[in-house]
Amino acid sequence: MAGGGDSFRALLRAANALLQQRRYHAALAVIKGFRNGAVYGAKIRAPHALVMTFLFKSGSLREKLKSIAQATYAHSRNLAYFVFTYKGLLAAQSRMQGKKKPFHSFLAACIGGWLVFGDNNPINSQIIMYLLSRILFGLSRLAVEKGYIPQPKQDPFPLVAALVWGTVLWLFEYHRETLQPSLQASMTYLYEDSEVWHDLSDFLVYNKRTDSK
């Protein structure tokens, strides 16, 4: 037993020593990136899938739990693969050209996005839309910072909020099929289900009456 413990401690010391080697840093960063992508994807998707599934999906408890597990696995796997691909390509370009350049990041991410997120499915679609909204904000701020557009005299956020809400409700009312299914479900709950009730039970307590009255 003591020998086994000594062997484990020796192995642990060897692993820690390896992790401190600068020459292996790029490869180890790729591996840890894969780990962090998997963990982060699971942390983000599991609560979202749990809420959306139990709020808007029908079916047995087993089916709902299976759906949550599948969505969580898909998000976690894709993010892990993407980080692995991105950091690997970034390290390869840096090694070939001797230093890291801004274009390396763009090219590596483009290739990773094509390979990992190129399949048009609900999980990938949600991730891309999440990123797109933040890209638009980021590019707007960058344009002001670089002087491409003048600094607004007033905070433009109220106007942006008005246009976003005006556009999304117009799409929901008249071109609903263009919106993502989960957004359609959320808006149906908020703006259509609130138009229907029969008595106090489905007016205040429940959204929809489940009996046959």
Automatic annotation (TrEMBL):
Pfam families: Tim17
InterPro entries, A to Z: Pmp4
GO CC terms in record: peroxisomal membrane
Protein name (record): PXMP4 protein
